[in-house]
Design brief:
Pfam families: ThiF (PF00899), UAE_UbL (PF14732), UBA_E1_SCCH (PF10585). This protein has 680 residues and is of the alpha/beta class. It is built from 19 helices and 20 strands. Strands 3-2-1-4-5-6-10-11 form an 8-stranded mixed sheet, sandwiched between helices. It binds adenosine-5'-triphosphate (ATP) and zinc ion (ZN).
């Protein structure tokens, strides 16, 4: 078994919190052939828990440093002799055993790939096939989906893990063992907030924080209309603050700063007072639980004249202090060269965070929302941060290693059995790995079970027969074939929702779209703006079966189309998969820049992905989801690429309770399942 460990090829995807623990465990267990993929570089904020990194590594690729450090942790071939002498100073492990070929061991090689696992040109099915198993240490749904599909296509076992604070899960996915894949179960969405709530009727601190992030964009983004608070000043009845906003954006530095201060004051006054009063006069808040109150002018004046902004990150700033903080941020921004000013909010940017804390507290006070937030707590909400717990990462990585041992043991058994020509193991057919017999779905929970356990193991689930990824299930899709264009279908559904990377689309055996290696995209470009019903080969009509192929992940599925003029979101079927649609939004630019809720009705438990895949590069972004009807306009917190940062593979809504599986599956006493016990 140890020889098997030393000689097997392992792929580790991700070298962050879980990845560092994993690589350390792999190295100390004696694994010699490990390849690591990670796209990130080391940030100072990683050092508290990503144990392979030190301050001198900041800025370097995670995978490179992790490989270097882990290599030196692989125990030497000659173990220290136990002479009873505790003084082991002269027995420091050295890895100069790479020339030792006498025992047919491969040299120690921890190989780094600094790149995105979704890069189809580098990481494809043949690449994955060279490994005995793959271990995931990722933090987002998109990358997990990708690895899931690659491993299924290559039929290589995948050990998946995820943690959220104190909660963690580890599971094993393997095509030919007949167990569920990552996409057999739906993943939680981030919370969704209707835009009208953010713009007009906030009731929670998070609403005012989202609003402040948009305000930041409204004031600093080069494209002012990128903010959801933007309204065309030339349009009919724009909000009262728009004129002051344009004035502030255009204001030049003046000698004594008075003009600039006036511009700042005007914006704050319009946002916190004039606009609120206007809405009150229009009766907008009649039904509101709490009627908003305009910000007291004296607070604004006092705050504007104070010079020293608040500095505490843990105290809650008074309203005057918040005004001072905001004015200071705006002055700072005015004197910062454009290229140094962040256009979009970033929780790790000091000025941006002070701005958002101050602005959201002013807005919260106007709407009577409690509690107000310190900078520290606002940062948690703004960055959608559930603190990473190093211990949970360590536990889950350890559990992954145990699962790896189980898998290698099965592989070894199979190899030995085959070489001896036998077919049976204790009467069992060992023709396949049958990992369902040796691996488990393990939950790491915060509140122990009735039996006093913090770790519970249950058998791996069977595949979901409706899973289009591992079960080739047909996908039902409901939409308006006379309104949707091929472009929208590709971006919103096929790539956005279904995760195809390089789809080829076929109607009755004829191509209507092709991309990827060797594809002639030019040939089909003219189809993109066409309405689905107008496409060649008879078009996509009610009842059409559309075939989608993706060589990059060896995926081939059929989609059956149901035409529907309009979709009422409430009608959305709950069953999986459930890609359903309605009319596209009317505004053209919304189609380009923003995904549409309602346009693709999303089950509440599905991973919400930004349709604008090219643009979702910030894990802290609020992705706006805009429908033609403002009442249906939504935002999705963190809907971008790294949306599931800190999102576990099976996390529940409040991120705290044990998962459904942990709660509902009986433990050892009830069903003979192996249960790992740890001490309280
Ligand atoms: N598509 C991808 N390809 C390669 N590596 C990825 C991909 N997506 C995420 N990763 C890596 O997975 C790791 C996840 O680790 P972790 O959850 O600790 O995140 P982090 O970014 O290091 O920490 P934090 O989000 O708390 O700042 C990161 O190092 C990240 O770079
Ligand atoms: Zn599946």
């Amino acid at each position: 078994m140890f020889h098997k460990i030393q000689t097997s090829n392992i792929l580790c995807v991700g070298a962050g919190g879980i990845g560092c623990e994993l690589l350390k465990d792999l190295a100390l267990s004696g694994f010699r052939r490990v390849q690591v993929i990670d796209l990130d570089t080391i940030d100072i904020s990683n050092l508290n828990r990503q144990l392979l990194f030190r301050s001198q590594h900041v800025g370097m690729p995670k995978c490179t440093v992790a490989c270097e450090v882990a290599t030196n942790m692989v125990p030497p071939l000659t173990l220290p002799s136990d002479d009873g002498n505790d003084d082991d100073d002269d027995e420091k492990p050295t890895n100069n055993d790479n020339n030792n070929t006498s025992n047919n061991l491969p040299s120690i090689l921890y190989q780094a790939h600094h790149g995105n696992v979704c890069d189809t040109s580098k990481f494809n099915v043949p690449f994955v096939k060279q490994f005995d198993l793959v271990v995931n240490a990722l933090d987002n749904v998109e990358a997990r989906r990708r690895v899931n599909r690659l491993c299924l296509a290559a039929d290589v076992p995948l050990i998946e893990a995820g943690t959220t604070g104190y909660l963690g899960q580890v599971t094993v996915i393997h095509k030919s063992s007949g167990v569920a894949c990552y996409e057999c179960t739906t993943q939680e969405t981030q919370k969704v907030y209707p835009i009208c709530t953010i713009r007009s009727t906030p009731s929670m601190p998070v609403h005012t924080i989202v609003w402040s992030k948009e305000l930041y964009k409204l004031l600093f983004h080069s494209k002012v209309d990128d903010s959801m608070l933007f309204e065309d000043p030339e349009g009919e009845e724009p909000s009262t603050y728009m004129a002051a906003v344009s004035n502030l954006r255009n204001s030049e530095e003046d000698k004594d700063g008075l003009l600039f201060s006036k511009a700042v004051r005007d914006v704050l006054h319009d946002l916190c007072s004039t606009e609120i009063q206007k809405q009150l006069d229009m009766g907008r808040y009649k039904a509101a639980k709490k009627t908003p109150t305009c910000l007291d002018v004296s607070i604004l004046e006092k705050g504007m004249t104070a010079i020293t902004p608040p500095s505490s990150t843990t105290d809650i700033w008074s309203l005057e202090e918040s005004v001072t903080a905001l004015a200071t941020c705006l002055r700072e921004a005015q004197t910062t060269p454009n290229e140094n000013l962040l256009e979009e909010f970033d929780k790790d940017d000091d000025m941006a965070m002070r701005f958002v804390t101050a602005a959201s507290n002013l807005r919260s006070s106007v709407f009577g929302i409690e509690p107000l937030q310190s900078l520290y707590s606002a940062k948690g909400i703004a960055g959608n941060i559930i603190p990473a717990i190093a211990t949970t990462n360590a536990i889950c990585a350890g559990l992954q290693i145990l699962q790896a041992f189980s898998i290698l043991k099965r592989q070894l058994m199979l190899e030995q059995d085959r070489s001896s020509g036998g077919e049976k193991e204790n009467g069992d057919d060992v023709a396949g790995l049958q990992l369902d017999k040796s691996c488990f779905y393990v939950n790491c929970i915060r509140n122990r079970t009735r039996n006093g356990l913090y770790l519970t193991a249950v058998p791996l689930e069977k595949p979901n027969p409706n899973c289009f990824v591992c079960k080739n299930a047909v996908i039902p899709l409901t939409l308006n074939v006379n309104e949707w264009t091929l472009q929208e279908l590709l971006h919103r559904v096929i790539k956005g929702r279904l995760g195809f990377e390089e789809p080829t689309l076929m109607l009755q055996g004829d191509f209507i779209w092709e991309e990827g290696d060797g594809a002639d995209e030019e040939e089909f470009k003219m189809n993109l703006p066409k309405k689905l019903s107008q496409l060649p080969c008879g078009g996509i009509q009610h009842g059409t079966v559309l075939e989608i192929d993706d060589n990059s992940q060896s995926l081939n599925v059929c989609v059956t189309i149901t035409h529907k003029d309009e979709w009422d979101g409430d009608e959305a079927p709950e069953d999986f998969p459930f890609v359903v649609g309605a009319l596209p939004p009317k505004k053209k630019d919304d189609v380009e820049n923003k995904p549409a809720a309602g346009a693709v009705a999303v089950s509440s438990t599905e991973p919400t992905k930004s349709v604008n895949a090219d643009n979702n590069d910030d894990d802290d972004d609020v992705v706006l989801i805009i429908d033609e009807d403002e009442a249906k306009i939504d935002t999705v917190e963190n809907g971008g690429k790294k949306m599931a940062a800190k999102r576990s593979i099976d996390e529940n809504a409040d991120g705290e309770k044990p998962t459904k599986k942990a709660k509902t599956k009986p433990s050892k006493e009830d069903n003979n399942v192996e249960v790992i016990e740890i001490e309280d």
